Amino acid sequence: MPDGTPLTDDDTRNLRDAFGRFATGVCLVTTMGPEGPVGFTANSFSSVSLDPPLVLWSPARASRRFGVFVAAPHYAIHVLGLDQADWIPRFARTGEGFAGLDAPLNAEGVPTLRTALARFDCAAHATHDGGDHAILVGRVLRASFRDGEPLVFSQGRYGRFEG
Ligand SMILES: Cc1cc2nc3c(=O)[nH]c(=O)nc-3n(C[C@H](O)[C@H](O)[C@H](O)COP(=O)(O)O)c2cc1C
User: Fold this and answer.
1) Whose CA is nearest to atom 21 of ligand 1?
2) Which residue owns the Cα nearest ligand 1 atom 27?
3) Alpha-carbon Rg of the chain, whole angstroms?
């Protein structure tokens, strides 16, 4: 498409479908909001820097949870394992969130979920413009992981990595 041409609905569909060809993992980002624990399903996670240790993820400005995460001084990013797809709808629009889940607080008071494949406990480092999303860069205070298979997301479907 030529530079500067606004995206039509069809182009947006095309762009979404093209983005979806990039397989990712799935993360659950958690923080303590003013009204209690909040979670966000995100596949926009990326590692950024080893020294200092930095990661990023991008919440949509349209999300009801956007304000809580942009204001959060700390959050935890959980990388889901293959057997943890059932956590995804919990933290989508109409999910039950943390209800009934054991979510111990970390040293910064952020609710955490046990048994994630990897977890990055972060302090907010920078916020950048990302169009209809914001790009949140977090400084990793603590990283942990376990053995196991990752949950892979591509073209709207979840599956296993067969390398
Ligand atoms: C696998 C998966 C990955 C997602 N990744 C993102 C993401 O990186 N950024 C984002 O803003 N929304 C992402 N979403 C959508 C959000 O989790 C959320 O459902 C949506 O923003 C609605 O937000 P609201 O209920 O807070 O308004 C993803 C959803 C799924 C199922």
Assistant:
1) 63
2) 63
3) 16
Residue 80: both structure tokens together? 């889901």
Q: Which atom of ligand 1 is nearest to the CA of 89?
A: 31
Distance 92 CA to ligand 1 centre (A): 6
* 26 CB neighbour count, 10 Å cutoff: 22
Among candidate residues 124, 25, 118, the one with its CA nearest the CA of residue 77: 118
Q: Which domains are present in the chain?
A: 25-154 (2.30.110.10)
pLDDT digits (tens, 9 = 90+) for 14-59: 999 999 999 999 999 999 999 999 999 999 999 999 999 999 999 9
Q: Give the residue, by CA position, lying nearest to ligand 1 atom 10.
A: 59
Q: What is the pTM of this model?
A: 0.94
Which atom, in ligand 1's list, is nearest to the CA of 27?
3
The residue whose CA is least distant from atom 9 of ligand 1 is 59
> Tens digit of pLDDT for each residue in 65-92?
999 999 999 999 999 999 999 999 888 7
- Are 97 and 38 within 8 A, CB to CB? yes
